[in-house]
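Lab notes, practical 5.
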Amino acid sequence: MICAGVILIAPWTAKVLGERPIWEVGHYGANALAGVIAAGLLLTWWARIHLGRLWSSAITRKEEHRLVDTGPYGFVRHPIYTGLITALLATGATEATPTALLGAVIIALSLWLKARAEESFLAAELGFDAYESYRRRVPMLIPFLPCH
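Output from the prediction step:
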């Protein structure tokens, strides 16, 4: 699914299909969205650095696996995905074509599904009670959203 989303969000796809933007972003809008993209990527970077050796692109048990609830993991359980989704949606909004928006949504949905799979894995690996306590305190993807 992610590959399909990447193809759809690529600017050349809209060009090949002859699509026009649904709205004009304008100079100020482009700058604001570039700031949102940068913020999303910075959050992703911070979260990746904060995890250190516990990070993996695959859902897998790492040596010394433990619950991380500090840094960006103190306000959202999956800050890497939050940052990527934020940057992708802002990219789709900047391009403003139907295919770019669809691609951003497909990738965001794929990352949400992966985050849900990680939730199950982490609950099993770290203990349901410990992980459930974290789930009750910290929202999954959208910071400051009330939990359960």
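Observations recorded by the TA: Residues 98-126 form the longest helix (29 residues). The mean pLDDT is 94.
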